[in-house]
Amino acid sequence: MITEFSTNHLGILLLAARWTLLVSLLAFVGGTAAGFAVALCRTSRHALLRRASMVYIQIVQGTPVLIVLFLSYYGLSVLGLKLSPMLAATLAMSIYASAYLGEIWRGCIEAVPPGQWEAGESLAMTRWQQLRHVVLPQALRLAIPPTVGFSVQIVKNTSITSIIGVVELTRAGQLINNATFQPFVVFVVVALVYFALCFPLSSAAKRMERNLHVAR
After folding, report:
1. pTM above 0.85, yes or no
2. Is 7 exposed, middle or buried (0-12, 13-18, 19+ CB in 10 A)?
3. Domains, the chain, with CATH or none
4. Pick from 48, 54, 73, 195: most CB atoms within 10 A?
């Protein structure tokens, strides 16, 4: 039975947006943890760690995130590890985020002047102490704007998780369209909800970047 798009459908989309935010948040947390490890390996003194992390970044960035999602959901099940759609989506998006965040943070760490490392070394600090007390606080200031900006990409890319059955915003829009046959109305509303989620993040990233340039 075909129905008209109504406020009830809008409510369903808004409820589905919660799952979009949840997947985005989990992916950001997982990507942050793994990305920090990748950034440390990329800036390590050990050539093997630098090369291994560089290969990881190139593989993930060179692979469509949709393929990473399929490998997490279908590929692991072939190996006997069956993940729920939500868990597979979180894993895939975390892997995707870790490669990009790791490279962003690598650039921020390397942007800290070499003299800062030398200053820490002159105080008899270990490599980790130099990172923790001298370099990372400065790199963090540089990293906040691009990190917040990248979070917009995470939110938008959660739309592909609908393919494996996660009923987030895009999937809810598809289901409502199947009931209403009003694709223009439905997906314009979906686009507006995505815009409402992403615009504050995008604006915050630009504002932080401007403030950072002024502070310099």
Report:
1. yes
2. exposed
3. 7-215 (1.10.3720.10)
4. 73
